[in-house]
Amino acid sequence: MYATQYDKVVQTVAEEFRISADKGFLRDDVDYVAVVRRYIAMSDGLQLRWVLSGGSLDLVGPMREYLEQLAAALRAAPAAAGAGGGAAHARRVRRRYGRPPGCGRRASLSAAVQGSPAPPRARSG
Q1: 27 CB contacts (<8 Å, ≥6 apart)?
Q2: N or C terminus: which one in the chain shows less Cβ crowding within 10 Å?
Q3: Where are the domains of the chain?
């Protein structure tokens, strides 16, 4: 069951990326299935490390940094995306899938999918 759900999520999110690439918001020379798999691996790995650390690991900081780097790498050249369309598309994606971890809400991907409460954010210093 997990494998089937994983494949469905990967294909669905990759298709959304492809649609954004077709509209000129994202690069069209990227294997988006691989991008989604790497994102899930990053998220799952951080969550596992959080559990093994007894909840002391900061999930938000590393995920935010990863997503910022990913967004910069995937973003199409400004001329390709047109004026103002990117923000509207981002809102549609957030409405459909919610915000990814580290983007304005303290929630993990598995917590959002499973409907469980998000782990508490570790305090630094």
Answers
A1: 21, 74, 75, 76
A2: C
A3: 2-114
